[in-house]
Amino acid sequence: MKTEITREDFLQFNKHVQSTINHRKPILFAFSFLILFVIVMNIGKPFDLLSIVTEIFLITVLWGLIFVVFKQIGLSKIKKMPNDKGGILGERTYLIEDKGFREISNSSETLTNWNGFKEIQESKDHYYLFVDKIAAYIIPKRSFSNGTEEEEFINTINEKILKHNTGANN
Which residues have C-beta within 8 Å of that of residue 57, sequence separation ≥ 6? Predict the structure, then answer.
């Protein structure tokens, strides 16, 4: 299978990875810090629940806006990171072999054994064949000529991974 990995594909992959990260602990930490900060700032003042709730709300909104702006700046920088003639962007040939999944580009050739895959994730426009938490082969869905070809490709990869990981022999 031949395809081309574009800057947009690379950006979508990074957005996908960020969306799967559990942000619960950092958010709880930040909110706890916020409440503590508001309490400390109000020491020595008469207790006013409306004032405290208003401060927490305004700081939360401001923090949220800052977070969104910096996230967008970070994503725009990520999109510009890979070199046009480096190893991430450009034409790719993907081959499904008995030993593993082979990727051939203008600058490299890689074979990942089937036991090296952690999981397959799907987004609206891509499949991601993860070999680590933040490293994956990017498979654009536009690379398939039809739904049957796409389904056969993913089913074959799933079968190879399952077969190898369960220890089944040919």
Answer: none
Looking only at the bridges linking them, the beta strands covering 109-113 and 100-104 are antiparallel
> Tens digit of pLDDT for each residue in 88-130?
899 999 999 999 999 999 888 999 999 999 999 999 999 999 9
Contacts of 126 (CB under 8 A, 6+ apart): 9, 12, 13, 16, 138, 139, 140, 141
Residues in Cβ contact with 34 at an 8 Å cutoff, skipping those fewer than 6 apart = 56, 59, 60, 63
Residue written as token pair 């947009």: 8
The whole-number pLDDT of residue 124 equals 95
φ and ψ at residue 49, rounded to 5 degrees? -60, -45
In sequence order, the β-bridge partners of residue 122 are 127
- Shortest CA distance to 117 belongs to which of 94, 91, 135? 135
- Res 22: pLDDT: 67
Model pTM score: 0.72
